[in-house]
Amino acid sequence: ETGVTQSPTHLIKTRGQQVTLRCSSQSGHNTVSWYQQALGQGPQFIFQYYREEENGRGNFPPRFSGLQFPNYSSELNVNALELDDSALYLCASSLIQAGGREQFFGPGTRLTVL
Amino acid sequence: GESVGLHLPTLSVQEGDNSIINCAYSNSASDYFIWYKQESGKGPQFIIDIRSNMDKRQGQRVTVLLNKTVKHLSLQIAATQPGDSAVYFCAESSNTGNQFYFGTGTSLTVIP
Fold first, then answer.
1. Do A58 and B91 touch (CB under 8 A)?
2. Interface mutation target, options A49, A89, A105, chain B, most CBs of B under 10 Å
3. 3-state secondary structure of B82
4. Which burial class, exposed, middle or buried, applies to B82 when counting CB atoms under 10 A from its CB (0-12, 13-18, 19+)?
5. Residue B99 with chain A: CB contacts under 8 Å
6. Up-side HSE of residue A50: CA atoms within 13 Å toward CB?
7. What is the residue-level pLDDT of chain A in tens, covering all 114 positions?
């Protein structure tokens, strides 16, 4: 186990709703990255947070937003949910002073949008 | 955008045999590569990494080969065990390393 935890494990929402996913990073890590993994696909980078600010973003619309808290935990918020948002959402923590290259993943939150 | 792909979506090997999983990438600026293992219901688990200034790196039972000329990466698993059954992803990044691009994945099945 990596020490990265995510909640909830599963979630069902309907189109148009909003959702908040949570992640607690591994002890000592200061950077959190969020990924979306569609069924049968590799994870796709959404964004990264460092020092409570966004530190890089992938090709996702603004309705995907995030927060990082002083204890380095993080939230992923998705507004106006669409059917294609159904996926496994993964967070990964790393220590940016160590180069931030080795990322430790949590088990993910499975989001289903109906 | 980035393009990281795997040659074979599935691979079946006999227990004890060696496994080779291949990956192609398209960004010549990529300078860091990671292989991840993902078991059902779990997040990706780091296996081994390699930087672009190397062409080979070995770990415990695993070896990663990097051919920058043809933008190809491979993961070799020696003496494959049933516990190695999983989906394997290659991922690459460049420069700051805060964004990783993952391939689609190869599903490895080890036959006892």
1. no
2. A105
3. helix
4. exposed
5. 45, 48, 56, 58
6. 13
7. 678 999 999 999 999 999 999 999 988 888 899 999 998 889 999 999 988 999 889 999 999 999 999 888 999 999 999 999 999 999 999 887 665 577 889 999 999 999
